[in-house]
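Reply to dn_fold:

You asked what the input looked like. This is it:
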Amino acid sequence: MAITVNIYYTGKNGNAVRFAEEMVSSGVVENIRAEKGNIRYEYFFPMDDKETVLLIDSWTNQQAIDHHHASEMMGEIIRLREKYGLTMKVERYVSDQSGIPDKDKKFIKS
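and this is what came back:
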């Protein structure tokens, strides 16, 4: 049962983008991706909102998330989030173990 958390970081004057750039350039993102249980940690930029960055953050289970939240990197994330004055909107999803239904697969081009 994988857990995916979508985090929308919103700031002003390009600060959300600068936050994501510093997360990458400082090595925090690389370290998070190397954590046990991390499946995905990627930033995306919504086309219709230049002040928001979307983080898609996936983990194998809640225990992996708990370990991440207790890590030193979490402190660095909070420090950078505060540095750039960001607010957050969070969505959480649990994977559907049954996979994509056959009736939906005809709409997917691989």
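The chain has one domain: 3-96.
Hope that clears it up.
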